[in-house]
Amino acid sequence: MRLRIEGLDLRDTDTLTLTGSTSGRLTLTRAHGRDRAFTTRSLRGGCVRVTPDLRNPASRYAVTGYETGATADVVVAGAGDICGSQCSETAKLITAMNPAAVFTTGDNAYESGTLSEYRGAYARTWGAFFGKTYPTPGNHEYKTGGAAGYFDYFGARAGARGQGYYSWDVGDWHFIALNSNISMSAGSAQEQWLRRDLAATTKPCTAAYLHHPLYNVGEHSPSTGTRPLWKALYDHKADLLLAGHDHNYQRWALQDHQGAAKADGVREILVGTGGRSFYGLSGGNPANLQAKNAGTHGVLKLTLSSTGYRFDFVPIAGRTFTDSGSAACHRASTGPDFGVAADPVTVAPGASATAAVRVSSLNGFASATRLAVSGLPSSVTASISPSSVTPPAGGTADAALTVTAAPGTPAGTHTLTVTGTSGALTRTAAVTLRVGTPAAFADDFEGDKGWTVNAAGADTATAGRWERGDPEETAEEGVKQLGVTVSGVNALVTGRPAGSGPGAHDVDGGVTSMRSPEVTLPAGAPKLTFSYAFAHRDNAGPEDFFRVKVGTTTVFERKGTSGADLDAAWTTASADLSAFAGQTVRITVEAADMGGASLVEAAVDDVSIGS
After folding, report:
1. Sorting pLDDT into bands at 50, 70 and 90, what band is 143?
2. A Pfam family matched by this chain, by name (predicted)?
C-alpha cells in the first residue's frame, strides 16, 4: 500500500510512523517537508498502522487516500535535443510505448525555443504527450529572454518561471527536474532546494534530469558547473541522472561527483537523440564510459519497479543500435535503518543556544547511534548531549545540540551537518545556523499572526484585495500570479483564486492594503527583508505599484512600466529601518491599479525584521 498524505507539517522533532501489516516501516519527520502532499513508498500488507508522535500543537497531517494491489512496473520515456528533423519519428516511439510520464532533457524546440517554435513542430509531434510531459529547458530555450517561450508553452508544468526546477513522483520513484541554465553553485537557491527535496522524499528510488551533462565525450566540454548538484544527488543516494546537450547517446557507470567509480554512485545517461542532427564523439573511452553512439535517433525507455530499473535505448525505424541494462535502487533495502532530524538554531555572539536532535528507527532499527556535528564556522563551537542514543524499534531517541558563539563572531547564516553513525550505516541532517540577534519579527504566513486588510478603512480597490492563502497560478502572455510560494503553502496575495480567467481576481479600481501587527524594532540598524512578486500586463503604467510602508513612510516601491508585460517572479528585497530603531511600528504592503483598467498582481512571503 502507498498512503496519500496531505498537509504534512511536522514541527520540531515530531514524527509520524507508518507500518505495513506484513513488512515495511516509514518514519516521517520535519525533514519530509512542510504542507506537502505526496504518496509514500510502498508498505507491504493489507493495512498500514499510522502512529503519530506529536508534541507541538502546530504539527498536523491528513491521510486522504491510498493505492493498493501488487506493485506494477511503470514506464517513463524521453529524450533531449528534440525538434529537429526527426522529432516526428521519435514521437512515434513514445506513442507506441504509451508511458506513464515523458521527460525532456532540454533544447526541445529549435532554434531559440520561441513560443511560435513550440507551437510548430514540437506541438505537432511531442505536443501529443503534453498532459504527461515533465520538461527541462536547454541553452537554446534561453536564446529567448528568460526562456519565455518555454515557460509560456508549458506553463505550470515547467515549474516556477525564472526557476524551472521542480519534482514529481511516479510509482515508487521520485523524479527531479533541474535547470542547468541558472546558478547551480553550492549554496545557490537551486542547490539548497535540491537538498531539501531529496531529504523530503519517501520514495526508495530517485532519478534527476537536466540539460548539461557533467560527464561527456561529445563535442561539448563537460559541464563542470553541474558538480554541486551531482554532489547533492550522490550524497542522497540518487540512482539516475539523465542529460542532453550533446546530440548523441552515452551511458556511464555508477560514479560520484568527482568521477570515481562507486557502487553507490549515480549513473548518467546522456540521451540527446530526440531528433536534431548529430554531434560527433571523441575517440577516447574513459574508464567509466560504458556505451556510446552518434548515429541513431531514439528515446530512452525506463521500466521502473519499487526496487530498481531497466533502461532501454529504443531507436527509430530503420536503425539498429540499442543499449539496455538494469540495476537496483540504492535506497530500496527494507533492512533496519534510521533517520536523523535537527531543528534550526539562532545564536547571538557571546551566547549559547540549543536545538533538538532526533534519531528515528526505521524497519525495526534499535541500535546505539553516535552523533557528531561538523561544518562549524570560525569562533563557533558545538556539542551534542548525549553523544550516543539508542531509539527503540519503531520509536525515537532525542539529544540536544548546543551551539556557542564567541563574542565578536560575525553575523551570518551557515549550514551545519549532524551525522549519525551506527555500524556501517551513516545518516546526516543539515542544520541551519544563524549567528546574530534573533529576529524581532518573522512571518512565513503559514499561520495567522494578525495582519489586517484595509486596516485604515481607506482602500479603494474593488477586486483583488490582499489575503493570506495558497495562491493559484494565472497566466496571460506569461505568468502573472505565481501558483507557488517561497516557503510552505501560504503567502500574502492579491486575489488568491485563479477564477474564470487571469483578470478575474487581480487588483482593480484602486489601492488594496494589508497591515502587520505591532513590531518593536531593535536598536541600532534594524533591517526588513522579504520576498515579493509584482506583475502586470502591457496595459499598466507607472501609476500602478507595489509598495511597502513603515507607518506612513514608503521604504520600498516598484512601479508599473507602460507598454510592457512584467511576468511574476519571486524576488528577495530588503529595506533599512534605522530611522525607526527602537520604535514600535506596523508594516503595510500595498498594491494598486490606479490608471485605466489593467491587470496587476502582487504577493509577499517570508517577512523578517532583525538586526
Report:
1. very high
2. Metallophos
8 Å CB contact between 352 and 402: yes
* Pick from 535, 605, 545, 531: nearest CA to 573: 531
What distance in Å separates the CA atoms of residue 430 and residue 546, rounded to the nearest whole number? 36
The dihedrals phi and psi of 507, each to the nearest 5 degrees, come to: -70, 130
Cβ proximity of 603 and 558 under 8 Å: no
Give the global pTM: 0.61
Cα separation, 48 vs 4, in Å, equals 12
Under 8 Å between Cβ of 208 and 257: no
Coil, strand or helix: which one is 270?
A: strand
Cβ atoms of 178 and 190 within 8 Å: the answer is yes
List pLDDT tens digits, range 175-223.
999 999 999 998 899 999 999 899 889 899 999 999 999 999 999 999 9
Across the chain, mean pLDDT equals 91
**Average pLDDT rounded to a whole number, residues 343-357:** 89
| CA-closest candidate to residue 143, choices 181, 179, 105 | 181
With both helix axes pointing from N to C terminus, report the angle between 227-235 and 189-200 in degrees, rounded to the nearest 10: 20
Number of other residues whose CB lies within 10 A of the CB of residue 608:
16
Number of CB atoms found within 10 A of residue 73's CB: 14
**Distance from C-alpha of 14 to C-alpha of 396, rounded to nearest angstrom:** 10
Chain centroid to CA 420: how far?
Answer: 25
Residue with cell 536598536: 523
Distances (CA, A) of 116 to 113, 124, 148, 153: 8, 12, 11, 9
| pLDDT tens string 95-130 | 999 999 999 999 999 999 999 999 999 999 999 999
| Segment (H or E) for 231 | helix 227-235
- CA 204 – CA 202 distance, rounded (Å): 7
The DSSP output letter for 595 is S
Grid cell at residue 593: 491599479
Are the CB atoms for 149 and 118 separated by under 8 Å?
Answer: yes
Residue 557 near residue 547, CB atoms below 8 Å: yes
Cβ atoms of 80 and 271 closer than 8 Å: yes
Q: How crowded is the C-beta side of 464, counted as CA atoms within 13 Å?
A: 31
Question: According to the 3-state scheme, what is the secondary structure of 56-90?
Answer: CCCCEEEEEEEECCCCCCEEEEEECCCECCCHHHH
Please check whether residue 106 is in contact with residue 270, taking contact to mean a CB–CB distance below 8 angstroms: no
CA distances to 183, 451, 601 from 513, in Å: 35, 10, 13
The Cα 86–Cα 252 span in angstroms is 25
